[in-house]
Amino acid sequence: MSQSHPNSVFSVAKFGGTSVADYAAMQRCAELVASRPQVRLVVVSASAGVTNALVALGNQPDAAERDQHLATIHRIQQGICEPLAEPAVTEQVHLWLDQLATLASVGPSATVAAWKDELLAYGERFSSLLFSRILNQHVSASCFDVRQVMRTDGHHGKAMPNQAEIRQLCQQHLAAQLEQQVVVTQGFVGADADGHTTTLGRGGSDYSAALLAAGLQANEVEIWTDVAGIYTTDPRLCPGARAIAEISFAEAAELATFGAKVLHPATLIPAVANNIAVFVGSSREPVAGGTRILPTTQQRPMVRAVALRRQQTLVTVHSMNMLHATGFLAEVFAILARHNLSVDLVTTSEVSIALTLDEAGSAANGHELLTEAVLAELGQLARVEVERDLALIAVIGNDVHSRPAVSELTFATVAPDNVRMICQGASPHNLCFLVNEAVANQVVQRVHDRFIDAA
Ligand code: ADP
Ligand code: ASP
Ligand code: MG
């Protein structure tokens, strides 16, 4: 099996939730993998809908609601087991379903966060086992527990991977297997040094694929999803959105950070550091092509894409003590860091700081970012105002900061709606601003029409 040797071209393929949603979707992906001998490792997400149900279980609902979520998960997994018709696999899936039901009803033993990660990991454990068996109908395949190699810290719910250890563990436990068979493993899931299950944050399977590719020195990561590449904006939002054939790492990273859900924002970090090419395409329509993410691209359009992130919260901290004072910014950020809050945008004036927090992910996980404790600590320092229901729109391109046309046209286009905050200048690749969530879709469409459809 010469193509299988890691020294030749070798890629890691990742399939997202809709790509492994049911038996038919898994069959399509298995055929795709079988037709691409360079793919030696497959990373899968949980089947569509399963992680949401597991998150809901983790919010400790009453028994009736818990049974509903368990029934949803059961239905999805059973729907794949039946046509697969392998009694040993069905038995294993049922065993895990029983364990999951017990874990959900007994509740946390140590910390809630650790218990939630145990629950969440079941989604990818089911899908990887089932996908490996479907793939095995086409090429020799096995299923591998990624917790043996995906070493993270103990920050449950959003664990930080340790790339050096992942590389060492991949070489030790995984590399040799890839020479024998195609290996299928779980995205999103990891384990800390004590072997406790962790997860990388919602949408983290893309990141897993890139981390494993780096750990195994693969040449390419293929992200197979439900759209034929990275588009000029979310195709669900804008009918005029079109696929981008080639995009630079820097632009793609900004686009992912500012909301293009198609790629987890951290995915490109291991890819860039290890010179691994990244491709994004549709598992439903592989012949439609997709997007190549490259170190640089020949074409460097002024505006490449528009991204949108909802559920942004703006916190404004005012203090007259800030006038001519030093260290105020540092104090505010120290409080935020102590509470593990990551800030996206910042603007300052002589006596105030405005900053944004992303509440989208945290709301879905059932915990509030801006707790009473944070507000009380900030409140001791200064007067604090909180505004919710805002959306962050980012215009992504090249040398955006030094082309007056970008800011001029952007604000002319947004003009009928109020811009609540603007950030420009820190990156050559983006200009971002906040608007009310209620008008966000129309603003994205207008900006897209102005820069991309008209280009
Ligand atoms: P997967 O389950 O395969 O990881 P996701 O749902 O996480 O898929 O990401 C794919 C979705 O990302 C698309 O269906 C699309 O609606 C959304 N999306 C947002 N912005 C973009 C963009 N610029 N290009 C392509 N897709 C985008
Ligand atoms: N299953 C996880 C989620 O839904 C991870 C992923 O799909 O990338 O967030
Ligand atoms: Mg995703």
Automatic annotation (TrEMBL):
EC number: 2.7.2.4
Entry's Gene Ontology cellular component terms: cytosol
UniProt xrefs under InterPro entries: AceGlu_kinase-like_sf (IPR036393), ACT-like_dom_sf (IPR045865), ACT_Aspartokinase (IPR054352), ACT_dom (IPR002912), Asp/Glu/Uridylate_kinase (IPR001048), Asp_kin_monofn (IPR005260), Asp_kinase (IPR001341), AsparK_Bifunc_asparK/hSer_DH (IPR042199)
Binding site for substrate: 51, 124
Residues given in the record as ATP binding sites: 14-17, 225-226, 231, 236, 261-262
A Pfam cross-reference name: ACT_9
Residue ranges constituting the ACT domain according to the UniProt record: 317-395
Gene Ontology terms, MF aspect: aspartate kinase activity; ATP binding
Catalysed transformations (reactions): L-aspartate + ATP = 4-phospho-L-aspartate + ADP
UniProt pathway annotation: Amino-acid biosynthesis; L-threonine biosynthesis; L-threonine from L-aspartate: step 1/5; Amino-acid biosynthesis; L-methionine biosynthesis via de novo pathway; L-homoserine from L-aspartate: step 1/3; Amino-acid biosynthesis; L-lysine biosynthesis via DAP pathway; (S)-tetrahydrodipicolinate from L-aspartate: step 1/4
GO biological process, alphabetically ordered: homoserine biosynthetic process; lysine biosynthetic process via diaminopimelate; threonine biosynthetic process
Assigned keywords, A-Z: Amino-acid biosynthesis, ATP-binding, Kinase, Nucleotide-binding, Transferase
Source superkingdom: Bacteria
Family named by the database record: Belongs to the aspartokinase family.
Designated name of the protein: Aspartokinase
Source organism per UniProt: Ferrimonas marina
